[in-house]
Structures are given as C-alpha cells and as structure tokens.
Specification:
Elements: H1 8-18, H2 25-37, H3 39-56, E1 58-59, E2 66-67, H4 73-76, E3 81-88, H5 91-100, E4 105-109, H6 127-134, E5 141-144, H7 150-163, E6 169-172, H8 188-196, E7 199-200
Parallel strand pairs: 3-4, 3-5, 5-6
Antiparallel strand pairs: 1-2, 6-7
Helix pairs in contact: 1-2, 2-3, 5-8
Amino acid sequence: MKVALSGPEIERLVQALGKLPGLGPRSARRAALALIKKRETLLDPLTVALREAAEAIKVCHVCGHIDTTDPCGLCVDPRRDDSLLCVVEDVGDIWALERSGVYRGRYHVLGGTLSALDGRGPDALNIPALLDRIEGKTGLEIVLALSATVEGQATAHYLTEQLSRSGAQVTRLGHGVPIGGELGYLDEGTLAAAFKSRRPL
C-alpha cells in the first residue's frame, strides 16, 4: 500500500504540475518542492500570475492566436504584410516563428493536424475560417508552416487541394525542417533557413 508523503493539497499540486509538458512525476515533485520552499518569491507570484492569465486570456476570432485582446496584437499590427498568410498547427508555432524574426506577415492557427488515428478530420480544424479569410483576396501567398510529420504532410496536402481554387500562391517551408520535426522545438536558425527556401506546391 502506497503511503502519502504529504497532505492532499500538496499532492494535488504535484499532480497538476505533472500534467505539464516535459514534467514527469519526479520533475513535478521537485518543482512543487521548489515552489513550497520559496513560497513568497515563487509560489505566491505564480498563483497570482496564473489567476490573472486565466481571467485575461482570449482566443483571437480572426487568426486563433491567444492574447489578452481580441483581435490579437498580431492581427491589429499595421506593420505586418497583409499579402502573406502563414498557416500553423498551434499557437506555439507562432511563438517559434516570431522568435526567429524572419516572418512579418499574418497568421492562421489550425488547432492541430488531420489524424485518422485520433479521429481528427477537417471539421475538427479551423479550416473553414481560413477559407473564409482568403475569399476574394488577390495577390496572396499562403505559407503552410506545418510540422514535417505524417499528419503535418497529410494536412498540407489536403489544404493545398482546398486552396487551389482560391487563386492564392501556396508555398510551404523548405529545407531546414527535418522529417519528423515539430516547429515548436526548432531553433531560430533552422526556421530562418526553412522560410528562405520555401517553394510552391
């Protein structure tokens, strides 16, 4: 029989931390201990930040990015290039691309990729909003910045077919993104090389 090492509140904290990406049971326990040991400098500010973020975060109705305003700061920025629209799987991909500094256009978040195994078809993704966004627009380049996984490639192929009737130039990231790689884990140099070598589909 497993004996609880601490009270239920602390165990709930460990379990909650363990659900975060990259944190297993041991790492979650170490993180919880660090927070508890430095309650005033770590735990209390984190509690406040989490509460404020939960109350303030909004999903942009235009592109699907998360921000504290709707539309988001990227959508209302007049310095961005309206002739470029970068389609990504998730918000983390936007953050990675923005860190690289090589892209200054607009974004569209799909909310994932097509996956027959997970039962995720086109209706589960933000594809209709993408098609609505580009309808009637001319001189538009749509960059498919999707992961080089089987699901990412299948999604890119499906989108290419859907976008072929729009008249927009459809490109995808080129060299630099390894097969099986995910954008959120790539460094800025790799992303920069991928953007510079994008090509038509």
